[in-house]
Structures are given as C-alpha cells and as structure tokens.
Amino acid sequence: MTRWEEVDDGHGTRWRVDATFLASSWACTWGAGCPGIGDEPAPELQQGCCSVGAELLDEDEARTIAALAATLDPATFEHHRHATAHGVVREADAGGLATALVDGACVFLNRPGFAGGPGCALHLGARADGESPIDWKPAVCWQLPLRVEREAAPGGRVLATLRPWRRDDWGEGGATMHWCCTEGEGALVGDRPVIESLAAELDALVGPEVRVELRRRGVGAEPERPRDDP
Ligand code: SF4
C-alpha cells in the first residue's frame, strides 16, 4: 500500500505526497546501469531517459535553455556545433516544445567517451559555474522522477499531488518501455531515502517547510521495504 501524507504549505497549497516513494531507496542509475527507456535494454548507450529529449514548459523556458546553451564551454558540450547550427529546441511530436535530438538522444547529452565528460552538458555547466543544476536544467529533468499535479480546491486553494512518474506519464512510448525505473525494484539502489537524496529538489518543489514536516512525521526514518503497487 502506498502511504500518502497531506501537508499544508501555509501559502494556499495542500500537498498530497507519496510518502512511500520518498522513503524508498530509489536512485537514478544513469551511467551506472540504467538500461534506458526504449523497447529494448541498452545500458551501453548511457542515454537513460535523455533518449526522448526534454519537454519544455513554455517559450520562456525554451528561451532560457537556449541562452544557457550559448554560454556553455564547447569543451564540455559535445554537440555545441549542432546547437549553434540548428538550435537546441524543437517542436515536440505531441505538441509544445522540447529539446532537440541528436543521434537519438537529447542535444545536451554528452555521449560515453566524450573528452569533456559524459552526461548532461547543462548539468556539467552549472557545476562548473558553482551553481545548482536545478537553475540550469529544464524543469522536467531536475524534477524527474518526481511529478507534480495541481488541481483547484475549494476556497481558491490548490491541491498538489507529488508522486513518482508512472509508465503512462511517458505517453505512447510508455506502453512498450522495457522498464520504468520508478516501478518495481530495479532502481532501489540508493544508500539513503529519497527524502534525503532529493532534498534540494523537494525544497524547490514543495518548500523546505513541507519537507521538514514530512521528516517530522517519520517519512524516511523507517527501513525501506519494496513498493507493492505502481
Ligand atoms: S531517471 Fe530513471 S530512466 Fe532516467 S536515467 Fe535515471 S534511472 Fe534511468
């Protein structure tokens, strides 16, 4: 059973939080065995979920990402030539905007063997500038595997649900993904609960007061046990 906790943030939002997931030992295994989200496992590509690019929130986020891309050091941005020539934003198949794709993955994803280091060039750029990747990466990238759904509540309030991504959140491709890292036990490999390992991300999403209240209620204090539902 999933344990849900509800916490008011004091600013008009009531958070409904999947406490079971926050107490779990989920950890992103990009570069450490993640087989990606294609139909077949391909850990050697080290593409993780970057194979589909990142959906962008709106034109503002697209402009921010494009501006940041222009500041990246080519030494740590493998596809900077492509980015300069073709841009880093595309029209997504499902509508809206997304990061461009190069050879089957996000334009920002440096591939294995790249001298400047594999992984997200925006992440690397933020770290090189002593800043948080949260301030540089598309929202969906730093929030994943956490997902927030907001709905109007009586009295002008908001009910916000925080839960892990599910297979059906990935759209049409979700049905044939050979794995979904937030389902099952494949990514329960962390050495501490999510509420600790993703504390900065939670602070940015729900605020530190809500996170601290969840800790006060014991979320993450109990030994991990596998989820028994998706
Ligand atoms: S979030 Fe999940 S699918 Fe994406 S890289 Fe990490 S482990 Fe792989």
Describe this structure as you would to a colleague.
With 230 residues, the chain is α+β, with helices and mostly antiparallel strands. It folds into 2 domains: 1-28 and 145-230, no CATH class; 42-132, no CATH class. It has helices spanning 19-22, 59-71, 80-86, 121-128, 139-143, 194-197, 199-205, 208-216, and strands spanning 4-8, 13-18, 55-56, 89-91, 97-99, 101-102, 105-106, 109-110, 119-120, 146-153, 157-164. The mean pLDDT is 95.
Question: Characteristics of this structure?
Answer:
3-stranded antiparallel beta sheet; 230 residues; 25% helix; globular; alpha+beta; 11 strands; binds iron/sulfur cluster; 2 domains; 4-stranded mixed beta sheet
Please give the share of residues in helix.
Answer: 10-25%
What is the 3D form?
globular
Structural classification: alpha+beta
- First-to-last CA distance: 10 Å
**Low-confidence runs of at least 5 consecutive residues:** none
What is the tally of beta strands?
Answer: 11
- Whole-number total of structural domains: 2
What is the overall number of helices?
8
List bound small molecules.
iron/sulfur cluster
In terms of DSSP E residues, the strand content is: 15-25%
Strands of the largest sheet, in order across it?
1-2-11-10
Oligomeric state of the chains present here: single chain
Sheet with the most strands?
A: 4 strands, mixed
Instruction: Tell me the Rg in angstroms.
Output: 18 Å
